[in-house]
UniProtKB/TrEMBL annotation, chain A:
Pfam families for this protein: DUF3034
Organism for this UniProt entry: Solimonas aquatica
Protein's recorded name: DUF3034 family protein
Domain of life: Bacteria
Record flagged with keyword Signal: yes
InterPro entries, per the entry: DUF3034
Entry keywords, A to Z: Signal
UniProtKB/TrEMBL annotation, chain B:
Gene3D superfamilies: Globins (1.10.490.10)
Positions annotated to bind heme: H107
Gene Ontology molecular-function annotations: heme binding; metal ion binding; oxygen binding
Name of the molecule in the record: Hemoglobin
Range of residues in the leader sequence: 1-25
The organism of origin for this protein: Solimonas aquatica
Lineage, uppermost ranks: Bacteria, Pseudomonadati, Pseudomonadota, Gammaproteobacteria, Nevskiales
Entry keywords, A to Z: Heme, Iron, Metal-binding, Signal, Transport
Origin: domain of life: Bacteria
InterPro entries referenced in this protein's UniProt entry, alphabetically: Globin-like_sf, Globin/Proto, Hemoglobin_trunc
One Pfam family hit: Bac_globin
Amino acid sequence: MKRVRLGGLRLLQSAALLVTAVCSSAAHADWYNDGKVLLTGGVFTVDGAGGGGAVPWATISGYETRDGINGSAAFTYVNLPALQVSFYGVNVGFYDRLELSYVTARLSLNLSNVDLVGLLTQSLNLGDSLGINAWNNTLQMDTYGAKLRLFGDAVYTSDSWIPQVSLGGLYKNNMSKDLVHTLGANKNKDYEVYLAATKVLFPISTLVNYTARYTSANEDGLVGFGECSGNGNCTNKRKIRSEVSIAHLVAKNTAIGGEWQQHGDNLDGKSLNLNGLDTQGLASLLQNLGLGGLSNSLTQKKEGDWFDLFMAYAPNKHISFVVAYLMFGNISVAPDQNGFYFSTHLTF
Amino acid sequence: MTIRKSTLSLCAALLALCSASGAIAGETKTKPIMGIPASSVAAFGGVDGIHNWVESLFYYIMLDNRINYIFKEFGNVDRQIALNTQLEHMVLGGPNEYQGASMSAAHADLGITMTKFNAVVEAAYNACERNNIPYYNCNDLIAALAPFTRVIVTR
Ligand code: HEM
């Protein structure tokens, strides 16, 4: 009996020891690391990768150095006249070498003309596979990413022009297949590959980044990939597009800057694709209803490149905030989309 | 430990010899790609200002539990303040009067990680703030010291 109790006690003791060991290792685990200098890991892009707001950088996200692992979570809210998007994401940086990321985007459209088409097609029973809901058009897209640092050092080799260079891949799954097809895209899932080069130029307190992205995305994939013309001809031509970020550090915890992201022209001039018959087919119907102007306003404008101006503030290594002014040009049928961006990045 | 102490005294003896026979520098200037402006030494407040900055640097280093024990065990703060003043003066564009060991020799056995190096970088920024050295001028010094990671960080 005594032996058993002793054994039980021992078991308890070792269990307690194990718990404290696990707990303390969770607090000061060997692999945990937050040794990077403030802001040098970048913030959280809408693709989940570490970088600026839209442009992934060659830096590995999180505050880990080559000595350990660091994770982060982020929330980003984009408000444009025609749409609002919320991004929820996480990423993990391993030994300042590899980064894995996941982000999910929820986009709500408030385009009265598209809503009206939804209302019409629903009430006229033209079909319910357009992905258009009369009152509530939402898109969801999940993005999985990985980034590998190839060579160079963005921060420490200030005696060399060689930048830090990383290769990244993104897999995007847009769940709103029907709506994406209605908007004229070919695919709702696709991958993108990018090569990013980043360098901090200390004497001018400025980080510069260039990224080349191999993609066929429409609006970052939020409107799918590639295009289908009215006669059912679909293509998914990936091209290399350029992206640039410049971030000027005004203090060790504050950066201001701007970005440019080149976009494609897959959907330029296309009208909404309503079950094979495009909006032109609907035009006579609309005309009869006295809504002749609507078919024009359902033709998609030339997709604009994305520009933004941002300010990032990191009071400490656990949280940073980014506010930005976005100039996204035309998005689908909505012209001149300028708006605001707010993002917070939590680092553990 | 004893070995290190003796190397230190050996170093000190050598140093005395060297300085007696005229300066032989153990370290050379770094050459940042964008250069260090000629006004840098003045921006730091001349040699006295640089000395004050190094004092602040060691004040913050010795407050930081992630690294202070290394300096307590292997360092000699007074000597390091003197030598760092010479070194920082040199990399900011002053004359090469550095009399200490090369960065690789001084740090080779310390097993310094990137994380520990960055702790010193944080102390450097704190020292700039404490001494009212503008952030932009501070970055000139950071640019000049950053390449030393190659030899100082051995893990
Ligand atoms: C760019 C950054 C650094 C610079 C410019 C620098 C500079 C110096 C200088 C000038 C010396 C004196 C060499 C001599 O005694 O002849 C020294 C020694 C020393 N440094 Fe550093 N150091 C740097 C980074 C570090 C870091 C990150 C650590 C530790 C975390 C460190 C720890 C030491 C120690 C312990 C010594 C004394 C070594 C000995 O006397 O044997 N240093 N350093």
